[in-house]
Each structure stands twice: as structure tokens, then as C-alpha cells.
């Protein structure tokens, strides 16, 4: 049976929010760590924290964590369709609709093994996001 990771996240949003808040503090507290490659032990820590959270509080309410979320413009590189794929990074984009860039990046890496900052494709350069607010200001 295949699990839809986004639906699982939405059902357990409170647990994910708590774990992601903690992981944000642990993984992204310094600029050098913010842009560093993820490590296998990062994945292990997220899984352990999420299991602990689900076992101890299976119905955690959505938290009031302020993740500093800013909506991305729908025409951004990571959302726009191209000739090869329907979406370049559909999994990342759906997480990005819920969380800020660094946490969406972490969730997409956990799901796919693909780090958007260190892509394995030919176009391995990370492109900055175009935020909706910035796009609206420029129009």
C-alpha cells in the first residue's frame, strides 16, 4: 500500500509542525548549516522525533509556530511546467505551499532523496524563489 505523504502530513499537521519547528532550530540555526547538504543522520533524527511525537500525542493540534512563511509566486521556477515534466518539483512545490523554503526543502528531501539546493540533474544551479509579494510589488 502506497502512502500519500502530503495527506499523511495534513492528517498529522500538529505533529509535523512541532517536529519541523525543532528541526528548524537544530538544522538551520546558522547560515553555513542553512545551505549545507543534508546528512543521513538528519533523516534519522526527523523520523525518530516524528515517531516519538505520534506515539505520545497522536492527535496533536496544529501548533501556533511562526515559521516565517511567505507564499511563492505561481510562475516560480519550481512550480512552472516544462516540456519534460508536468512540474519541475511537484512534491517540493506542494510542501512549499505549507511551509517556508528550508522546511519544504527538508520534507521534499525526506520524501524523494532530492535536495533542491544540490540537484542531481544537469541544471544543478539553485535558483532563488520569486515570492508572490515581490512579484506583486514589481507589477
From TrEMBL:
This is Uncharacterized protein. It comes from the Eukaryota.
Amino acid at each position: 500500500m502506497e502512502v500519500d505523504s502530503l495527506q499523511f502530513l495534513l492528517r498529522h499537521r500538529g505533529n509535523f509542525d512541532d517536529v519541523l519547528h525543532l528541526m528548524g532550530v537544530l538544522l538551520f540555526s546558522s547560515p553555513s548549516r542553512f545551505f549545507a547538504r543534508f546528512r543521513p543522520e538528519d533523516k534519522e533524527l526527523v523520523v525518530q522525533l516524528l515517531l516519538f511525537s505520534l506515539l505520545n500525542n497522536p492527535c496533536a493540534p496544529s501548533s501556533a509556530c511562526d515559521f516565517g512563511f511567505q507564499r511563492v509566486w505561481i510562475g516560480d521556477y519550481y512550480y512552472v511546467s516544462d516540456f519534460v515534466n508536468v512540474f519541475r518539483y511537484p512534491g517540493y512545490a506542494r510542501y512549499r505551499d505549507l511551509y517556508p523554503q528550508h522546511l519544504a526543502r527538508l520534507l521534499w528531501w525526506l520524501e524523494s532523496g532530492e535536495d533542491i539546493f544540490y540537484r542531481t540533474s544537469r541544471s544543478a544551479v539553485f535558483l532563488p524563489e520569486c515570492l508572490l509579494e515581490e512579484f506583486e510589488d514589481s507589477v
